[in-house]
Amino acid sequence: MAKWKFPEGFVWGVATSAQQIEGAAQEDGRGLSIWDRFADGEGNITDGSRPDVACDHYHRWPEDIGLMRKLGLDSYRFSIAWPRIFPTGTGAVNAAGLDHYDRLVDGLLEAGIEPFPTLFHWDLPQALQDKGGWADRDTTSAFAEYAACVVRRLGDRVRRWATHNEPWCVATLGHEEGAHAPGLKEPRTALAVAHHLLLSHGLAVRAMRGEAHDAEYGIVQNHCPVVPASDSPEDFDAARWFDGFFNRWFLDPLFTGRYPEDAVADRIRAGHLDGPRLPFVHEGDMGIISTPLDFLGMNYYSRIVMRAGEDGKPVAVAMAPVDQLTDMGWEVYPDGLTGALLDIHRRYAPPAIYIAENGAAYDDAPGPDGRIVDQRRISYLHGHLLAARNALEAGVPLRGYFLWSLLDNFEWGFGFTKKFGLFAVDPVTRDRTPRASAAWYHAVIRENAVDDDLSLPAEGDSRVFQP
Ligand code: IFM
Q1: Which residues does ligand 1 sit against, CB inside 6 Å?
Q2: Is 456 inside any structural domain?
Q3: pLDDT digits (tens, 9 = 90+) for 171-196
Q4: Residue 166 is a catalytic residue
Q5: Among 401, 397, 410, which residue's Cα sits nearest to residue 441?
Q6: What is the CATH number of the domain that holds 358?
Q7: Count: domains in the chain
Q8: Span from the CA of 20 to the centroid of ligand 1 (angstroms)
Q9: 222 Cα–ligand 1 center, Å
Q10: Which residue in 22, 166, 176, 411 is the catalytic one?
Q11: Is residue 449 over pLDDT 80?
Q12: Residue 444 is assigned to a structural domain of this protein
């Protein structure tokens, strides 16, 4: 079987986020987040669950570091909960919150795992939302102060920092579609929110560099390659439209200091902007947003196929048969990862790229021997690692891969119904059970290589996770 070796020093990791795994929602002075509040709303979370306990990682992190060590990880991408550090978003620091991440960072370093924190993965302090949240320009400076405060404490040990995770989700799902906290359906607000997220990123990078100059700073963007459903000019335009707001609305300002003109025109046509002058953009903002970055984190799960609807409005179409969909309904399409990496490399040329999230939700039942052989997840991961290899061979400066996710967790509006973990988490005891994919990933990391052919993990690799 032919093995393809990843470059020396390629970083292997897993990714998680605070709101999705920590729990301990009311412990050690943590403030309320917008997701704690959103979960109160009738019908907001499909299974009616709440993130209050989640995977109880806040207490079980030493055990989880043990799992990471068995996996052989180089790096752990986690997020810091803003409401633990500043329970009301600004003002007095909650020392217990900083202490928690201090211990986590030390625990990781003792295990030989690099801590790779993200400052904002959607858990805005509710007190800031009460003042307008991301629609309020003041939130941008609050974020920069919070980021600087965390770097002041952990910057002697943390070498790589990400500001935001997936700003598109916060702007669109949270403020235009109402599917995420804070649950607004206001397209005009969503545009201001997107701008303030980008601005806060630039302000934070500058503030953090002031605290720890030599560390590396970046942002994590979800990227979705878009394909027109046919050769018709209308379907091409539908694909351009989606790419404009999902991908380029964020990457263009970050790397070129400008919003994409065609996407601005789309928003004017839709009545979300009054004209080409964007009212929320102040003098100097675009220079701050395009502050040079050390890396771009890119999350990739699937592609989207677009066509022009009957009324001319773009609509997404399902092209893949059901057996090629994950439990999220997302098409398994590894080539899209190669395409996305090449596209970003050619258009924006970030100095380094990390695949900051990639993974699949599948709920495979344990077999008679109690083992969960999640062959579909292994196949998904295998296909995407081959796709990453193809991008590396084409010259993309890809430096690492972070699998989403270590544990089954609180999948936002889907509650605990979508299982992304290398480890299943019992909903009552919170005990972690390795899936076969954990052993498979362990072997990839150990070899720093991926086989051309797909195979299940060897018995020896599975034994690594036996108690
Ligand atoms: O769980 C999320 C994560 O919080 C952000 N990226 C996508 C994941 C899967 O939906």
Answers
A1: 17, 20, 166, 299, 357, 404, 411
A2: no
A3: 999 999 999 999 999 999 999 999 99
A4: yes
A5: 401
A6: 3.20.20.80
A7: 1
A8: 9
A9: 9
A10: 166
A11: yes
A12: yes
